Structures are given as C-alpha cells and as structure tokens.
Amino acid sequence: MSRARVGKHVGPYAPIVGRGFITASIAAGRYRLTEPLGLEKLCTGCGDYWPADTEFFYAKRDDLAGLSSLCKACYRERNTARKRTADGVEMA
Rounded to an integer, what distance in angstroms lies between the CA atom of residue 80 and that of residue 15? Predict the structure, then answer.
C-alpha cells in the first residue's frame, strides 16, 4: 500500500496574496500586470520581470508574497559564486 505525501505540491504554483498587497507592490514597481502573462515579479538580481510563480522564483514562507526576491537563475548564480569564493577558486 503506497502512502500519499502530504504537503507536497506538483508543478509550479502562484502563492495567493491579498489585493492590497498586490496594489501596493505594483505601485512600488516590485510587480506588474501584463496582458499575456498576468502578474509578474521583479527580480532584484537581474532587474527583469518574471511570472510570479514557483517556476521562476523559489517559494519563501517567511515572505509576504511567498516568493524569494531573486529569480531562480540569479539565486543559482549567486550561490555558485559564493561556493567558488569559499573554496578559494578565483572567478574569471
């Protein structure tokens, strides 16, 4: 008999946030609404807007939006650079 894993999700999802949070975030420039993609979030690393879901941003429980501030590509790049620096490998 197999057991289903409780608390695991399948595929990307967009965290549910309140209307007031979205309105304030759009006014501040952290989010924007576009016709084809819907709600997009600003990555603080590369400065590009990406769809506000877990396909492009890591889930972050302690954040009001539920998403990290860096897109997944910038997050990976930053961590790779940190590991190289910690290992004493010079970056080109």
Answer: 27
